[in-house]
Task: structure prediction
Amino acid sequence: QVQLVESGGGLVQPGGSLRLSCAASGFSIDTYEMRWYRQAPGKAREFVGYINSVASSIKYADSVKGRFTISRDNYKNMVYLQMNSLKPDDTAVYYCNFPARNFWGQGTQVTVSS
Result:
């Protein structure tokens, strides 16, 4: 059925970059807004950003603005989160979200550490 699978997480040094992917299946993302969230240990889930169906509107939380970029490939049914200039505070589990159906992926761990 509907499924979102995040990948691309891992260990990275401060200042480094990482590209996360969200593979959707069971539905076509082409007419839907998609979102990214993250959750660090002991903290509440935090909104990262969203991208509308045709990528004409993309917004970010202040904490990541200027460093992170959300993109999508509707043909591949994929959403991406490019993360640059990573900081230790970016360490979290990152989740892909399909808000139209309140559906979440399993998350992928990103650890920023020297």
Notes: Residues 11 and 111 are 5 Å apart (CA to CA). The chain has a mean pLDDT of 97.
